[in-house]
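Changelog-linked ticket: adenosine-5'-diphosphate example.
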Amino acid sequence: TTFRVAVRPVEMRSGAGVLVSFEDVTHAEQLVQMRRDFVANVSHELKTPLTALIGFIETLKGPARNDPVGQARFLNIMEAEAHRMNRLVSDLLSLSRVEADERVRPTERIDLGASILATISGLSPLAQEADVTLVHDLPDAQVVVPADRDQLHQVLTNLIENAIKYCGKGTTVTVRLGAPDYAPGLRAQAATLIIQDNGPGIDPIHLPRLTERFYRIDTHRSREMGGTGLGLAIVKHIVNRHRGRLKIQSEQGAGTRFTITLPVS
Ligand code: ADP
C-alpha cells in the first residue's frame, strides 16, 4: 500500500497546529505502473520487426545487391514483418476503441446463431489449411442479444482463430450456443456461448493472467503464428462492455474451453 502524506499548518483555538492527511494512492500508483509497462511492451513489440526491417534493407542495399535469389527471400521476410506490425497496430486500435466506450452499452439486436455461422464460414479456409475441423451446435430457437455486431464478430474470430492456431492438425473446435437461462452470478437471463477445442490445453498456472495484454505462454510460438498477445485482452474488454462474463477452463492434454455468458436484455 502506498500513502501520500501531506502536512499543513492550521490555526486552532488553542494556537497553531498541523493537519496531517494520509491518502491511499495504491490504485493510482498501480495505474501509472501499468501504463508504463504497456508503453514499454508496445515499444518492444514494434521495435522487433522494425529492427529486422532495417537490417534487411541494409543487406539489400549492400551484400545482397547482386543476388536475386537472396533478394526475393529477404523481401518475403520483410513483407511478413511489415504484416506483423500492421496486425499489432490494428489490435492496439481495437483495444483502445473498446476501452474507450466500455461504459456505453451496445444496443443493436444481434442473432447469435447467425453471427456464429457467419464467423465459422469466414474462418473455414484457415481451418482447412490447418487440418482443424470446425463444428457448431446451435439451439432451434433464435437467440438474440443486445450487442455490437463487429465486436461480437471479433470475439468469435479471436477465440476460434486461437483454437485453430494453437491446437493444430487433426483437432476439432466446437462452437456451442445455449438457449438463454439464469446463469450463476447474473440476475438477468443470459445466453451461453462456448468455444471448445481438444488441443494441447493450457497449464492452469497461466489461466489467471491469460487475458492480460501481451501475456503469452510461448512468445516464440505466438509470434510464429502471427499472434500479437492482445487477442484475449480484446475479448475480455468486449465481453465486459456487454456486461457478460468470460470463463476459461483448460486441462493439459485435454483442450481448452472458453465460456461467455451474455445477458439477453
Ligand atoms: P496471441 O496473439 O499470442 O495468440 P492471445 O491473447 O490471443 O495472444 O492469447 C494469449 C496466449 O494464450 C497465446 O499466446 C497462447 O499461448 C494461449 N492460447 C490462447 N488460446 C489457446 C488455445 N485454444 N489453446 C492453447 N493455448 C491458447
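Closing comment: Example verified and attached. The longest helix spans residues 26-61. The pocket of adenosine-5'-diphosphate is lined by residues 158, 162-163, 166-167, 197, 199, 202, 210, 216-218, 222, 227-232, 256 (CB under 6 Å).
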